[in-house]
Amino acid sequence: MSAPSLAVPDRPATPALAMFLALLLGTTCIGFSGIFVRFADVGPAAAGFWRMAFALPVLAAWMALEDRGGNTNGVRSGAMLPIALAGLAFGVDVVLYNASIGFTSIVNASLLGNLSPVGVILGGWLLFREKPTRRILGALLLAVGGAGMLVLPKLSGSAVTPLSGTGLFGDGLAIGAAFSYAAYILAVRRARNRAAAGRISLISSAICAVFCLVAALGLGETILPQSLTGWLAVAALGLISHAMGQGLITLALGHYGANAASLVMVWPALVSVLAAWAIFAEQPSPAQAFGGVAILAAVLMVRKG
User: Concatenated DSSP letters for 70-131?
Assistant: First the structure.
């Protein structure tokens, strides 16, 4: 049994500025995950395992602080199923996204991998009866349109990485990651009605770690990083992209509805574009620049409504 204070309303109140900033900071941290994966010298699933492994101590400390603060005495009845589903869904998302980076550009993988708002809004509508408002639908169309403008040069074959059989495979993996992440968001949103954020993050991450390790062993991947750069990359994946990024998102989802939160998930795409430009000289085209502006506008629309 859990304390009554664990309950989170099914229709949360308008989130405070602090929760919006937490969500935005969390998604910014996630935006660098593709950069870290590119520097890691391990397999896709192995990178996912190390991401969880480095994050678990931080998440355990977070849960301990919640317990000490009297915010939780456990989890409410029915919480473990959505938490377990969140861990498995995120495991699939991590493996598919990491694998896609090996077959397509970071920008392409990030853009397609962050189209999860479509699945989240439809799932939230069908499963949670969270009917999207006109503003949310308008922001969704703007965000997806912006992502389309960002990816258009690569789809037309005019970018550095032309569309090919290999590119299509990588793009397909990224799209699969997007739908998996949509399932993760919906599962966390349901779990946040029954448990505190730190406990959800810790348990789901542990489940994800087991999934990724089993997948890495089954695929015969290189599991141990082969260089200092590789170790630093997987450590950054765990501490920055997961412990900080996913942790802040999980915290914010207790105050945001699934519809609004999912739209801000497109923010990492813009972060990835800028990071890839600065680090790997993947200069965005004018169409990609306009797409980034559209994503920013969508984020502002979410903040207002």
Answer: TS-SS--TT-HHHHHHHHHHHHHHHHHHHHHTTTS-HHHHHHHHT-THHHHHHHHHHHH--P
| pLDDT band of 166, cuts 50, 70, 90 | very low
Q: 């590789």: which residue's tokens?
A: 230
Alpha-carbon distance values, 213 to 3, 23, 95, 102, 157 (Å): 34, 28, 10, 19, 36
Ramachandran area for residue 260 (φ above 0: left; ψ -120 to 50: alpha; else beta) = alpha
Between CA 262 and CA 121 the distance in angstroms is 7
Residue 130 to residues 11, 122, 186, 257, Cα–Cα distance (Å): 8, 9, 11, 8
Residue 268 has pLDDT above 70, yes or no: yes
Question: What is the chain's percent helix, strand, coil content, to nearest 5?
Answer: 75, 0, 25
* Residue 252 and residue 261 in contact, taking contact as beta carbons nearer than 8 Å: yes
pLDDT at 246 over 60: yes
Inform me whether the pLDDT recorded for 42 exceeds 80.
Answer: yes
209 vs 56: CA distance, rounded Å: 9
Residue type, 147: A
Largest CA distance in the chain: 58
Cβ atoms of 255 and 120 closer than 8 Å: no
